[in-house]
């Protein structure tokens, strides 16, 4: 059957309208994926950039096994009132009069308070304690990549990125100081932060403090993979570039 041109156009418009209605119905009723091919609401995007304040969370130092501690029991006339001890594998140190005191997992201030309480329980009036860390052996950061001596290095509240790289005997000959990444996990979130050592040394921005468990990557392929796309989009960086890897 041959239709007039006007009739053919009307049928075409009706056909297109029916397709639009069908597509609208699909949009309202989402497809259900099979177990083998699950569907998601949206495609995963690139890592989220985060503010410096969210990344820059410092974890306080806490005593651990094999740490060396120097204590002073102020006001006591005893030879043993000033000595160095090692935290045992159970987290205890032994102090005259106070006896065994557990300081593993405590900050220095919390450990001082624990020793003071132990002295009070042993009838020492108005005890005063000064506690200092002699050597840290329980908490470390990892320095990898183009440094002269990669490995694990002890960290305290004053350890910065520059200090950690210096502990690893500095950058190797072909290291790229503009590609230094710090990996960190805070409260279940994983972060990556890109630093330029030259900018830090020039005072463009401050030398960041490191936390126990941080991983420092110097000129590593992993670093380039994290930040390649962002560096292409942001060629000039005046501060550290920090991204959230996992929520």
Give a quick precis of the structure:
27% of the residues lie in helices and 26% in strands. The chain has 247 residues and is of the alpha+beta class. It starts with a helix and ends with a strand.
Topology summary:
Elements: H1 5-28, E1 48-49, H2 52-55, E2 68-74, E3 82-86, E4 92-95, E5 99-102, H3 108-121, E6 128-135, E7 140-145, E8 151-154, H4 161-167, E9 180-186, E10 189-195, H5 197-201, E11 215-218, H6 221-233, E12 241-246
Parallel strand pairs: 7-11
Antiparallel strand pairs: 1-12, 2-3, 2-6, 4-5, 7-8, 9-10, 9-11, 10-12
Q: Main sheet: which strands, in order across?
A: 1-12-10-9-11-7-8
Mean pLDDT: 79
Helix and strand run: HEHEEEEHEEEHEEHEHE
User: How many DSSP E strands?
Assistant: 12
Q: How much helicity do the residues have?
A: 25-40%
Q: Strand-residue fraction?
A: 25-35%
- Count every helix, treating DSSP H or I runs of 4 or more residues as helices: 6
Distance between the termini: 63 Å
- Please identify the structural class as seen in this structure: alpha+beta
The major pleated sheet works out as:
7 strands, mixed
Rounded Rg: 30 Å
Which outline best applies? elongated
Unreliable residue stretches:
13-44
């Amino acid at each position: 059957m041959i239709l007039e041109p006007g009739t053919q156009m009307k049928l075409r418009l009706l056909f297109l309208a029916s397709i639009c209605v069908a597509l609208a119905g699909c949009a309202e009723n989402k497809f259900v994926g099979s177990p083998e091919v699950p569907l998601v609401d949206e495609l995963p995007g690139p890592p989220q950039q985060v503010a410096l304040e969210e990344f820059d969370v410092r974890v306080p130092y806490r005593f651990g096994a094999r740490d060396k501690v120097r204590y002073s029991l102020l006001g006591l006339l005893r030879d043993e009132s000033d000595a160095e001890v090692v935290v045992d594998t159970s987290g205890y140190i032994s102090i005259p009069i106070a006896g065994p005191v557990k300081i593993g997992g405590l900050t220095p201030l919390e450990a001082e308070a624990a020793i003071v309480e132990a002295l009070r329980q042993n009838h020492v009036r108005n005890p005063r304690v000064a506690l200092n860390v002699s050597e840290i052996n329980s908490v470390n950061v990892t320095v990898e990549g183009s440094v002269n001596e990669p490995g694990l290095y002890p960290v305290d509240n004053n350890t910065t990125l520059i200090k950690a790289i210096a502990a690893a005997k500095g950058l190797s000959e072909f290291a790229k100081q503009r590609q230094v990444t710090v990996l960190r996990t805070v409260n279940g979130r994983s972060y990556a932060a890109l630093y330029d050592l030259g900018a830090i040394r020039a005072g463009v921005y401050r030398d960041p403090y490191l936390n126990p468990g941080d991983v420092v990557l110097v000129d590593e392929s992993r670093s380039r993979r994290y930040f390649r796309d962002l560096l292409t989009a942001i060629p000039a960086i005046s501060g550290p570039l920090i991204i959230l890897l996992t929520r």
